[in-house]
């Protein structure tokens, strides 16, 4: 059985946390934002791994125009930002 990559990353993060790494260290190792790692840890502690391993889509619709979205994709492809914070800062700076 093939485990989806997103679920495997979450499992890897939790194993590394269990081995004693901090959320910041796990984020650096797995190229994740440390807040994401913290959220997974909290969810795992509160509800168990079955909840962490759910792949739920959602969120709000984009407020960017098609042109802005294309510019964002190009910027991400060129700069490979390390965290969602960097992406958010770019969006705020470029598109308000």
Shape: elongated
Percentage of residues assigned to helices = 55-70%
Radius of gyration: 16 Å
Class from helix and strand fractions: mainly alpha
Name the average pLDDT: 83
Number of helices: 6
Please count the beta strands (DSSP E, at least 2 residues each). Answer: 0
Poorly predicted ranges: none
Task: Output the helix-strand order.
Answer: HHHHHH
Number of domains: 2
Largest sheet data: none
Explain what the structure shows.
- The chain is an all-alpha fold and 96 residues long.
- It is built from six helices and no strands.
- The chain has helices at residues 5-18, 23-30, 34-47, 49-52, 66-79, 84-95.
- Helix 1 packs antiparallel against helix 2, helix 1 (5-18) crosses helix 3 (34-47) and helix 2 crosses helix 3.
Topology of this structure?
Layout: H1 5-18, H2 23-30, H3 34-47, H4 49-52, H5 66-79, H6 84-95
Salient structural properties:
2 domains; 96 residues; mainly alpha; 6 helices
Concise account of the structure shown:
The protein has 96 residues and is an all-alpha fold. It is 69% helix and 0% strand.
